[in-house]
Design brief:
Blueprint (H helix, E strand, L loop, with lengths): L2 E6 L4 E6 L2 E6 L3 H14 L4 H25 L1
Antiparallel strand pairs: 1-2, 2-3
Helix pairs in contact: 1-2
Length: 73
């Protein structure tokens, strides 16, 4: 199960997609979702691998946004 996180700059949102589930959230909430999924990994270790994929996708998106901001300066 791969998780994909994409950014929509026009809408100011990001979408997290995994299999048939998809959620779209304000980009300002990205740090909150990272905290949530990291917490889920600790709270439910049997499912930690699944949550790790979500964390990885969100961290990758956060890094891309940082890189874009840096290159825009």
């Amino acid at each position: 199960m791969k998780t994909i996180a994409t950014y929509d700059s026009a809408a100011g949102t990001f979408t997290l997609e995994k299999n048939i589930w998809r959620g779209t959230f304000p980009i300002a909430d990205l740090p909150k979702w990272l905290v949530f999924y990291r917490h889920q990994m600790q709270r439910y270790p049997a499912q930690g691998g699944n949550y790790a994929l979500d964390v990885e996708a969100l961290e990758m998106l956060a890094k891309q946004l940082e890189d874009w901001e840096r290159s825009a300066r």
